[in-house]
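Lay summary. Proteins are chains of building blocks that fold into shapes, and those shapes determine what they do. In this project we predict the shape from the chain. Here is one chain we studied, written as its sequence of building blocks.
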Amino acid sequence: MKDLIDVEGWPVRGGSRLHAGRIASGTAPVVRHLLEGGAIPLGLVATYELATVGPDPTALYPPARNPRCPDRITGGSSSGSAAAVAGGLVRLALGTDTGGSVRSPAAYCGITGLKPTLGALPLTGVMALSPTLDHVGLLAATAEDAGRAWAALAGLPGRPDDTSTGRIAYARDLASDAPATLERLDAAASMLSLEGRRIDLVTLPDYGEIEAAGLVLIRMEQLVRHADTLRDHAQCIGDMALDSLRAGQDLGAADMAVARTVASRTRAAIDAVLEGRDALILPTVMSPAPRVAAFGHGRAVWTPMRTIPFNMTGHPAISVPMGTIDGLPMGLQIVGRHGAERMILDLAAIFEAATDHTLHLPDRAP
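And here is the predicted shape, written in a compact code that computers can read:
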């Protein structure tokens, strides 16, 4: 479990000195569901502090390293969850995803990461960051493992209720300025076509506007969540998390109103793209995991992802390995209609079975 998710009697601290003495008084429902399904809890794993940004050596615990190449980041904030799965310690880990914090670590570490539909899993017993964007998610060694865990969490008997149309929307233009990523994305679309899916090229709304709106929502909501902490206990927070929490101080009601309008418009656009289609495919991240050294001096570094729109719209999304660039993993993101987790899990499993990306990832990148 990510060090944000309560297990009774465990020291769940959000990776922060702010909660250095905290012991969870109850167990989060998402954990209880897995235990009832036969899961065995092994321990807590690292998070970027308070689910913000990282990796930050000034936070409570040392940052996780990427098992595929230890001088690279795991991505975050579900950093330890991804490292534990990719490193072979466990087959499954729980994480949280507010702007891509399950899917981007999954992509960077060469594993599967599922962000369900907004509200599909309860957030009770999970430390909040941005309540309108927060999701609990799964990181798993394979799409098949993620499907088993999802069935236990959601109480699903088996196959999807949705009838497949056999059509998939492909947002190819999102990778047009990243040739190496586009090459792997085209190969993924081709493979799904060979598996009997019709691929429809689609154009999504301007990503820059969506990402900017998403960051406004996160920054303003996390500022409200931690207002008392910033006033009374700022000295207990690491450098990167502190800068992140303060980032919303120059924003106001007008910024929030614009961001919410963009979020509503984006949801309508994604719904329209998915009308009559099983899923939408696009990259999870635009380039492989950056080097840890780039995050020196307590400052976060922007990493190009394509994940935050689906936190804003609430659509379920999964990242599954789609090959490597320079020996480092990359992820294919599959997005579904609201409530269609089983559909995208099945598509991820089909893609996984048709390729060797999961089976033959290198233990170490050059």
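What the prediction tells us: The mean pLDDT is 94.
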